[in-house]
Design a protein that fits this description.
Helices cover 8% and strands 42% of the residues. It is mainly beta.
Length: 345
């Protein structure tokens, strides 16, 4: 295919399809948004007719290959490590993280040659409490040099910026967890944009000693994928799989506090954002304060920025959430909260 005959992601979006190049050859992620034959269909999540042009039509076609990463399970899965006590009484949490090359599915039938932590993108959500001793046993089974850089406070030799780990070797990161808040970890090997974009990142949550109010807690990592290697993203998502939460809405209980741990790790774009419909959230930037900074319905973050969002729905029904960069939303970064009445016993 000549350079002149290639379609840009924006041209493909206008045509109602998203073209990608995967490791196994050409593949296509078609959205029903803008496709002429998709005038009407039955929505499998709500059982109602979907009219062409509605947001219900903005969805990926097909299903992921069985055994692939599950974005729904990832939302609420926290790795607290193997717990023991040190001689001084301090809690020790030990984790195992392995870097390895693995092909991942970012939309049904669209595969991406990723570099992963523990075989998934994002990597596991590491969680501990402020003051815990954190010990991470890192092994590099990938084909390239890698490291782990943790956001937060720690000694210089635990920073991951200079301690490069060659393939087949390992390193032990150990430090006291501080300060409390929502942090992240990622590879810091040069070129950094390549190592991050390929998938080497994850959430790092340090809880305050006094804890936070009980809530339905969800981890959302905003990311994107350059599937044809032109230094622009063709697929956008929260937790890797395009339109997953549009197709499989996140259940939320009416009147229950929901807490979202939101991280932006998108490469190639200066900003990413989250907007929720029919509600407002209390915003805690970086989560390092227990006092909310504002009440809003949208937050915009640069790469590496993160925020804790807390909200309670007043009305039942289906409410969208999505990037407020419309292009991102239409290329996969949108979903639905399905707000339901509490179960009566």
């Amino acid at each position: 295919m000549s350079k002149d005959s290639r379609l840009s992601r924006r041209a493909l979006l206008k045509a109602g399809a998203l073209g990608t190049v995967a490791a196994g050859g050409a593949a296509a992620l078609r959205t029903l948004h803008g496709v002429a034959e998709a005038q009407q269909r039955v929505d499998t999540t709500g059982g109602r007719a979907v009219v062409h042009g509605s947001h219900d039509a903005m969805i990926a076609v097909g299903e992921l290959t069985p055994g692939q990463f599950d974005p729904t399970a990832f939302l609420t899965h926290f790795d607290y490590g193997t717990v023991s006590r040190m001689p001084n009484g301090q809690t020790l949490r030990e984790y195992t993280i392995v870097a390895e090359d693995r092909e991942i599915e970012v939309a049904p039938g669209v595969f991406y040659p990723a570099w992963t932590y523990n075989g998934q993108v994002p990597g596991p959500t590491i969680r501990c409490t402020e003051g815990d001793r954190v010990r991470i046993h890192f092994t590099n089974k990938g084909a390239h040099i890698h490291s782990i850089h943790f956001h937060g406070i720690h000694p210089a030799n635990m920073d991951g910026a200079f301690e490069m780990i060659p393939p087949g070797e390992g390193y032990v990161y150990e430090f006291d967890a501080e300060p409390f808040g929502l942090h992240l970890y990622h590879c810091h090997t040069v070129p950094i944009k390549r190592h991050i974009h390929k998938g080497l990142y994850g959430a790092f949550i340090i809880d305050p000693k006094e804890g936070r109010p009980a809530a339905n807690e969800l981890v959302m990592v905003m990311n994107g994928f350059d599937t044809n290697f032109d230094n622009e993203n063709e697929v956008y998502a929260v937790n890797t799989v395009a339109f997953h939460y549009q197709k499989y809405p996140i259940p939320v209980t009416l009147g229950e506090l929901t807490r979202v741990y939101l991280i932006n790790i998108t490469e190639f774009d200066l900003l990413n954002s989250l907007h929720i419909h029919g509600n407002m959230f209390r915003l805690y930037r970086t989560g390092t304060s227990l006092t909310s900074s504002e009440l809003t319905d949208i937050v915009t973050l640069g790469q590496g920025e993160r925020a804790v969002l807390e909200f309670t729905y007043k009305f039942p029904g289906q409410f969208m959430f999505h990037a407020h960069q419309s292009e991102f939303a239409e290329l996969g970064w949108s979903g639905i909260f399905r707000v339901e009445e509490p179960t009566r016993v």
